[in-house]
Design brief:
With about 170 residues, this protein is of the alpha/beta class. Helix content is about 35%, strand content about 15%. Strands 3-2-1-4-5-6 form a six-stranded parallel β-sheet, with helices on both faces. The N and C termini lie far apart (about 45 Å).
Length: about 170
């Protein structure tokens, strides 16, 4: 327990430092690739969320998913690449190759599908090389370029609002 508190303290310090140095990236390009960062601790309908995105005209090959969970049970099976607090060091380094690949991929759109400020998942959002980041209003405002005020359980309303505004911004 003490280690978890200590790790969260150092992650908070790391995230705060990165947020102060973060510059907005606003490129005017169409969205071809989508990264989806989901906190499955509170939202377990990732497949339904992906279907809602696919219904907007995207293909499955264009979407890459990364799942974050606070605790992963020993016999739990997760089909998508996943990460937990256990895989992040005190200095914010990540020791899973599939997660590092996700962070290095230059997505046109990163959907941060979580509404709680957890420093492990915030660090992933900040480290991502995505051009345009979208998330919820309850998360630190400096993480995302575009914020939608909605509840996490209302994934259909979230996706319809998101794609309505992406059309207005001429991103799709």
């Amino acid at each position: 327990m003490f280690y978890k508190i200590l790790k969260n303290f150092f992650l908070k310090k790391n995230v705060t430092k990165r947020l102060q140095n973060q510059q907005p990236i606003l490129e005017q390009q169409k969205i071809e690739t989508i990264g989806l960062l989901v906190d499955e601790t509170y939202f377990s309908k990732t497949a339904s969320l992906v279907e809602a995105i696919l219904s907007q005209g995207f293909r499955k090959e264009q979407i890459t998913i990364l799942v974050y969970k606070d605790k992963i049970k020993s016999k739990e099976v997760i089909s998508e690449p996943f990460l937990s607090l256990k895989n992040i060091s005190l200095s914010g380094e990540i020791n899973k190759a599939e997660v590092v690949d996700f962070l290095e991929k230059p997505f046109d759109l990163l959907i941060n599908y979580y509404d709680v400020n957890k420093y492990g998942i915030l660090l992933l959002s900040i480290k991502s090389k995505a051009n345009f980041k979208v998330g919820f209003d309850t998360v630190d405002k400096r993480v995302n370029h575009f914020i939608i005020k909605e509840l996490v359980d209302n994934y259909k309303e979230f996706t319809s609002e998101l794609f309505k505004y992406l059309k207005i911004l001429n991103k799709i």
